[in-house]
Amino acid sequence: MDILLLVIYLALFVFFILQPPIYTPDTNTYFRLHFYRFPGYGIFLRVFDLFFGNFFDFAVVGFQLIFGFISITVLANNFKDFLNLNYLAYFALLAILIFPYFPPLWVANNICAEGLSYPLYLLLISFSFDFFFREQRKKIMHLSIVFVLLCLTRGQFIVVAPILAVLYLLKERKNAIKKPTIFLFLLLLLLPFAAQTLDKTYHKLVHGFFVTTPFSYVNAVTLPLFVSKKADVAQLKTEDEKILFLKTYKTIDSLGLLSSKVSGDPKSKYRVFHDNFPVICNRNFHAPGIKYFENKTENLSENVVMIEEAAKDILPVLVKNNFKEYISIYFEGIFHGFKGIFISVFVLLLFVYSAIVTLKKWSVYNGLLLLATTLIISNAMLVAFASHSIMRYLFYNYFFAVLIGIVLLRKITSKP
Q: Are the C-beta atoms of residues 159 and 376 closer than 8 Å to each other?
């Protein structure tokens, strides 16, 4: 088995390393340590450029491949040993874990944050499994370190630690008032604050502002802009916000990129929003907003903070004023991420079922189902809120499909 796996990895390494590296506009923003990028991947690229120079491309892709294969092996072997997976189930799990390295994602060849965030996420799940189901309490240190590194590379996973904290309290509810349980529960809850403090410290040192990476609200305000009406400007707080909103509204209105300009049901409207997210967000709100605020401050980089703050203020006003339209398209975004309403409803029902049975009795299968469905749903909801539901943000949890299938099959076939 080990020799066969090594041969597979060697063949895959040779295949991928011979493919050209993929540079995108995002690559440049990471390499230049742009203010609105999380620090992890940018620092990684700078270090590799310093040490490898002319061999930069080879070194980065090679490292992302090796790190990915190690993380895949750690996770797959963990589940294989504990759940006693047969060869068919094991290789099915390996196949879906390796899938992101092939097109269209090209996780290792693409010089972008996913090259690090995907392996880190797999390690986080593996250490979480050890912590929850193998009773290896010391793995909380491994879990904590990987979580912080992951959040400093890709911020969408900041919600994972609170989810783990709640699940841990659910698992240890009979020992909820004991000191070890309280300590570990609080530690999990504090991890996001630790990650955000490091993020803020980095931006203070590099950009001069003690703030979290300023791009979350700029992304999240895009759907509210899509469903907005011109009259919404009356409820905005500042003159700058009103000017910025009206400029954006006028442009996307002229391009027909408003929900009111799109005929059809919410699904049809979401399709237009999904296909034009970069146009609304990057070209007509973020970039013009940065340029607008350049003339409002003498402090270098403060305009990036100002456009984020403006988006933060604008977002709730637009959502409140257009809630019915917003929520209908938001849910279509979730459905789109699940490739349809059927799978969405199935995962939701599975979440409800796993929550009920886990409340009655914690077990490996019940707990694993609840962990998997919670992570899947929370990530889908967060992505639909903050952006558009594309594979690049959602593929991290695909491997849970195999594990969920195995668990359900065993629960169905096991004797009562």
A: no
Nearest to 84 by CA among 329, 364, 292: 364
C-alpha to C-alpha distance for 294 and 303, rounded to whole angstroms: 5
What pLDDT, on the 0 to 100 scale, is given for residue 1? 67
Q: Which residues are CB-contacts of 370 (< 8 A; sequence separation ≥ 6)? A: 167, 170, 351, 354, 355, 358
* Res 307: pLDDT: 96
For the chain, the C-alpha Rg in angstroms (whole number) is 23
Q: Judging by beta carbons within 10 Å of its beta carbon (0-12, 13-18, 19+), is residue 123 exposed, middle or buried?
A: buried
Higher-confidence residue of 369 and 411: namely 369
According to DSSP, the residues that pair with 22 across neighbouring strands are 110
The pTM of this model reads 0.95
Q: Which one, of 370, 360, 362, 395, lies nearest residue 380 by Cα?
A: 395
pLDDT tens digit string along 82-109? 999 999 999 999 999 999 999 999 999 9
Q: How far apart are CA 352 and CA 1, in angstroms?
A: 38
Closest C-alpha among 180, 41, 50, 55 to residue 113:
41
* 110 strand-pairing partners: 22
Instruction: Report the run of H or E that residue 341 belongs to, with start and end.
Output: helix 341-360
Residue 416 has pLDDT above 50, yes or no: no
- At 22, give phi and psi (nearest 5°): -105, 115
d(C-alpha 346, C-alpha 343), whole Å: 5
Give the amino acid at 120: L
Residues in the chain: 416
